[in-house]
Amino acid sequence: MCRHSRRGVLSTMLVSIACTLVVTRFMLPTCSNLSTRSVDSRSPRPAESSSQASFFEAYPWESSNFSECIALENFPKPHVQSFVDLPCLNTPFFKLRESKVSEIPLDFPILSNHICEEKVSVLFVLPSVADEKTKNIRLSIRKTWASRFYGADWRQTSDMKMAFFFGSAGLNQDALDALYRESSTYGDVVVGNFNDTYGNLSLKMAVIISWVAKFCPSVEAVVKVDMDTFVNVDLLLHILTEIPKEEHPAYVLGVQHTFPMPPVIRTGRWAVPKSQYPLDVFPRYMQGHSYVISGPAVRLIAPSFPYFPIVANEDAFVTGIMSQVHNITRFHSSFAEEHTENRIQKFRQNAIVSIVLKGEDRQKLWDRQKLWQSTKTKKCYVS
Ligand SMILES: *[C@@H]1O[C@H](CO)[C@@H](O)[C@H](O)[C@H]1NC(C)=O
Ligand SMILES: *[C@@H]1O[C@H](CO)[C@@H](O)[C@H](O)[C@H]1NC(C)=O
Ligand SMILES: *[C@@H]1O[C@H](CO)[C@@H](O)[C@H](O)[C@H]1NC(C)=O
Ligand SMILES: *[C@@H]1O[C@H](CO)[C@@H](O)[C@H](O)[C@H]1NC(C)=O
Questions:
Q1: 75-131 pLDDT per residue, tens
Q2: Which compartments is it annotated to reside in (predicted)?
Q3: 28 lies in a domain?
Q4: Which of 166, 168, 197, 201 to mutate to test the pocket of ligand 3 (most atoms within 8 A of CB)?
Q5: Residue 168: inside a domain, yes or no?
Q6: Could you tell me if the CB of 5 is within 6 A of ligand 2?
Q7: How many domains is the chain partitioned into structurally?
Q8: Side-by-side strand order, sheet with 122-127
Q9: What CA–CA distance (Å, rounded) separates 313 from 205?
Q10: CATH of the domain at 151
Q11: Which residue in 9, 160, 201, 323 could disulfide with 314, CB within 3.0 to 4.6 Å?
């Protein structure tokens, strides 16, 4: 167990030393023993409304209270660890079906196939929601941790790119029009043809991964990021260099679920019906706020979605079940933690890749801006 969270400093150090020793060798998972209307976003871009432009000016940056970071602990630099499912879930359930059992809609009202026209090494995909307040969150992401992907006129010119994903079924014309406008301004909007509900998140990821496989066929790594998660892109790139890609071209990387065998919840928001997934546990999977799927893993998984039942719980489905189906290596790293004062220090010290923002949407907007300012000024914020 090479996890650092919620331990005392001493035991953290001991675990860290032990992990460093263990982690230098990578192990294979032992289970292997057992109608499109596309928008040309390069056409002239009408300016977004002025309320968008003034949105950031509303924040009182100058009066924000920044101070030097105080190192509470010396956080260990994250390393990549592969992990093994024990005991193995060795059942025929994880075999692909012989005929199609799932319908993955592959028509895109907003296609945005220009995104990967030029070489893309790392593509960030963010499942998003088509409403007014989420529009502000997208703008805040484009202007903070993701700003380096955008050049003049919001063109994405680096070899890292980002796209927000939506489903159109059930959207009214106004909401759809707003997405067309946003797409023509920022060029980073993809809209698929499905009902964009919480219960359809797994389908949404299947659509996203299928879009990537089709339109970004040579991408090296896809990073799925939730809207409320702030990413340290430099550290992410550094961690990607630690993956032994020659031995494990198809991999997923993220924060492993606390339990080696995560229980399946049958009631409430995260309920998964037995008819969908009959086993009592999932294969160990990555937490959903941010995880990486390598290009080769995308290309293995994407064509197989129709031949496997869609299971609710997008993170368990993609990083657990589909990885198990394809024998994809799962790597764990100190990837993300929740946003607390202590974790900001940790983030600032390059010890975690991402922070999950907490609280009301407005608080998250505020925190995203503060984290960004703090990243740029190399100072921590106090309030
Ligand atoms: C995964 O590994 C098992 C055991 O080696 C093998 O039987 C199975 O065919 C593999 N599955 C895939 C999709 O490669
Ligand atoms: C900034 O925060 C520190 C620590 O909480 C406090 O002592 C100081 O008075 C604050 N300064 C301003 C200008 O708010
Ligand atoms: C979308 O899903 C919700 C919840 O399942 C349902 O109430 C609604 O009718 C669906 N809308 C469409 C357009 O399929
Ligand atoms: C998921 O999307 C499909 C296609 O739009 C729709 O038929 C289905 O009702 C949706 N399911 C849920 C749970 O919203």
A1: 667 778 777 655 567 789 999 999 999 999 999 999 999 999 998 999 999 999 998
A2: Golgi apparatus membrane
A3: no
A4: 197
A5: yes
A6: no
A7: 1
A8: 81-82, 329-332, 251-254, 290-294, 221-225, 122-127, 160-169, 189-195
A9: 10
A10: 3.90.550.50
A11: 201
pLDDT in tens, 78-94: 778 777 655 567 789 99
Q: Does the beta carbon of 18 lie inside 6 Å of ligand 2?
A: no
Name the residue at shortest CA distance from atom 9 of ligand 3: 170
Could you give phi then psi for residue 374, rounded to 5 degrees? Answer: -65, -35
Residue 5 included in any domain: no
Q: Could you tell me which residue, 274 or 70, shows the higher pLDDT?
A: 274
Domain that holds residue 68: 34-40+52-266+275-381
Reported for 337-343, long-range contacts at CB under 8 A and 24+ positions apart, including other chains, are: 337/5, 339/230, 339/367, 342/72, 342/73
Query: Domain for residue 261, yes or no?
Result: yes
pLDDT, tens only, 200-229: 999 999 999 999 999 999 999 999 999 999
**Atom of ligand 1 lying closest to residue 327 CA:** 1
Ligand 2 centroid vs 256 CA: distance in angstroms?
A: 38
**Does residue 382 have its Cβ closer than 6 Å to ligand 2?**
yes
- pLDDT single digits (tens) 308-343: 999 999 999 999 999 999 999 999 887 766 666 666
CA 309 → CA 12, 50, 99, 178, 278, distances in Å?
40, 45, 11, 33, 11
Q: Which amino acid is at 333?
A: S
How confident is the model over 19-29, as a mean pLDDT? Answer: 35
pLDDT, position 29:
39
* Cβ atoms 231, 132 nearer than 8 A: no
**How far does Cα 252 stand from its chain's mean position?**
11
Looking at the DSSP bridge assignments, the partners of residue 337 are 355
| Pocket mutation for ligand 1, best pick of 93, 327, 328, 330 (most atoms within 8 Å of C-beta) | 327
